[in-house]
Design a protein that fits this description.
The complex is a heterodimer. By secondary structure, chain A is of the alpha+beta class. Chain A has nine helices and 13 strands. The chains are: A alpha+beta, B mainly alpha.
Amino acid sequence: MIPVRTVGEVFDAIQQAKTGAPAYCTNFFPVQAKLQGWIDHGELWGEIGEAATLFFRKDSDFWHLYFCAASVAALRQEVAASPNLKAERMVIDLVGNELALGDLLALMESAKFRRYTHLSRMARAGHTDPQDWQIDGSPVVRADKPDCAAVLDLLDRVFDRYGEQLPMRYEIEAAVEGRQILAVKRDKALAALLFFETHGLTSTLRFWAVSEQFRSCRFGSALMRHYFATQKAVRRFILWVTTDNESAIQKYRHFGYAPDGLVDHVLVNELIRP
Amino acid sequence: MKSIADILGRIRPEFDFTASNDFIGDGMLDSFDVVTLVAELDRNYGISIQGVDIVPENFQNLQTIEALLRKSGVQL
């Protein structure tokens, strides 16, 4: 495993795996800005092979595993040869349409990864919204820099760090700077938040959470209404949700989201215990 | 045979692809959509787009997708 030092190294490795690929496969869909952030913070490492490359992104006390390979067979070889997959705590996301993921799931399970959780992508259209999202008197504000620790703490409490790709502290600071975290505060405490990323006409709701002692105060609803009201140019809203979180799915459906067919199987290796 | 605009419209019906010159930059297509689009183009035109050509600049607008299809052997 060697540190990745430039975005160019990543694209070169991807290009190498793609060249002449009979059946290119990947779970690595990096946005350049995000990639640069990982590299700047020394989080991205790689095992670069001829027909397949493994990338490892450091999280708190485990790694996210990504791959790009000329074929499933090339990936199988690389996975079998990698010592890191047995020595380090690893999480892998396999994203795609359910029917297309069978081979990759079988491959990773044969490498002693086990299924940990399953997410589904939901989407809603922006322009068919029949409601006028009123936000007069809304308790919602933008999160400020001093809120970063509370944001991180709430995300840690409410979400699963292996399954839901929690942001690092610097990502939260950047999101606050970019006005991408909506908040409700009570007595200077963070009661609820909505963390989103808008890119052109598409907006991704990354996290929506209400602190335990403020449930049933309608803060979640206020945040969602504020989000829609302030993202008027957006034509497509998307989010990922764990498929066993029926309560969240019901709420998202209430706000017009529906599954769009894309799924994410999260698998972990043996070093991550239940 | 469907046109490129028809295929794009089926993948992301909420967008007007004739009104943009930068599908990726405008947030109309993400990486997952590009994978779906490649599969649809392959099926519709009976081709196999090479892995090396699956890069964002080839899916920026209708013209770049047309150029990619020509490169892949489609007579438009």
